[in-house]
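Fold these two proteins, one after the other.
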Amino acid sequence: MINMFSNKALRSSYLDLMEKCLLNTIYEDPSLHTGVYEAGVREKGLDCPRTAHTMIGTLRLRNLRNLTETVLSEKVPGDLIETGVWRGGACILMRAVLKAWQCSDRRVWVADSFAGVPPPDIVNYPADHGDVGALHTFKELAIPLEEVQNNFRKYDLLDEQVQFLRGWFRDTLPVAPVTRLALIRLDGDLYESTDVALRSLYSKLSPGGFVIVDDYGAIAACRQAVGDFRAANGIAEAIQDIDGSGVFWRKRR
């Protein structure tokens, strides 16, 4: 039997369809807040979809796919992780890319509290004071673990290559059983969440691997955390914009 994913065109078609399903652009899923679907808004991930499994938008989702395929094609060693997963769509896409590339020796780490954004610790992280500090009151951000697992199951992608890290990042990421990473995707919004993730994971990122920061252009506290970490660690690799909100950089070889 010929594996369909040995055909590059079929592999691409599968991942194209996965993107459309995860974004729910096929059925023009309306925004949770406005009740309206706007293609341009969904493209840049500027709305909160009613039923779609990701809110990061077409441009950031395609960037994630491209970078994941790059680390596979160039054999950059390590697993893939997202910190802050909402309904799980970005992680589902990463697992789909592994499937499409017939890759069985890497894992996707799904890190989240599965209870929403934590209340801000403004004593230790004063940058999280203000508007960003109210994110913990947004109930729509609290998606239970079981719901995220079921979303993976809907695509037949829930298996041993998907590992869940449940809890606040300050508790889970420093002790996570992750040894090497090829791609890190940060979507924790807060200064604290971004800082803890970078301090816990960046040293495990292989040369040639990627860091993606979802809220760099949208949330000042997140951007400050990235800047402070890069300055403290002498990271000079250029930050590349994705869509005005998300950015990425590649760790020097």
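Now the second one:
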Amino acid sequence: MKEVQDHFFKLAKEEGYRARSAYKLTEIDDRFKLLRPGARVLDLGACPGSWMQVAARRVGERGLVVGIDLKPIERRGLAGHVVALQGDINELTRETLPERMEGRLFDAVVSDMGPDTSGVPMADSARSVQLCHAMLDRLPFLLRTGGHAAMKVYEGAEYPALLQRAKAMFDEARGFKPKASRAESVEMFIVCRGYRGPAKDAAPERDPSLPTRAPSKGWGTAGGA
């Protein structure tokens, strides 16, 4: 498996991507066609910027890519139709949208967010699922009806309920593990097509013992490896 990971690492260097995680979004989009020329794309957990690079190439100069992360994203080298912002998804509301995010809704919302890992698989999975719910909670004021989404999650006991919620909100939602993901990793991507709009949004009941705010690691910088 190490040879496979070295392959993606070297390929990222050769092709000018900031991290090999670029090939996760590349494979997702090749398979599910989430990004189209001229589209508006929001990237959550965008640091170090490899997903922004992929999205920018796929939507072209007529499109727009907005990336947000808890950590500052290096602007140098990014295309002119890419906007890098610093922020926290837990503080993102309709009223607090950054200026560059206002106006038309996005055509696609993608997320490589991941929590600070504790080494306890059940806890890490639960926090990862919470970040995904935080994203789904905000789709009514981020994603247009008919739009697409993809989000990283660590598989665990709460993963099936998250997938069911996504299926209720989209025409199609399924789990997918790109080849660029480590074989031993529990990360999975839920890929969604055809957002049905706010009327279909319904969060499942959650365990009240779990915190409502999941500590995040740069909105997903763990995925930038």
